[in-house]
């Protein structure tokens, strides 16, 4: 899967914080595939701890 991605943490020092995530690819289904696995909706029982809702 060819993809260029970059993440940048941010915070304002008063509690507002998060992560900017930028991804570039010619095939948007690659990003969808990655996000499904990050959020645990791919059906494989695996997810990123940071992304559970």
What does this protein look like?
- This protein is an alpha+beta fold and 53 residues long.
- It is flat.
- The protein has one helix spanning 28-38, and strands at 4-11, 17-24.
- The protein starts with a strand and ends in a 15-residue tail after the last helix.
- β1 and β2 (17-24) form a beta hairpin.
Morphology: flat
Low-confidence runs of at least 5 consecutive residues = none
Number of strands: 2
Q: Strand portion, in percent?
A: 25-35%
Described by strand count, sense and barrel closure, the largest sheet is: 2 strands, antiparallel
**Given the helix and strand composition, which structural class is it?**
alpha+beta
Estimate the mean pLDDT confidence.
Answer: 81
Q: Helix fraction?
A: 10-25%
- What is the distance, rounded to the nearest whole angstrom, between the alpha carbons of the first and last residues? 27 Å
Write the layout of secondary structure elements.
Blueprint lengths: L3 E8 L5 E8 L3 H11 L15
Antiparallel strand pairs: 1-2
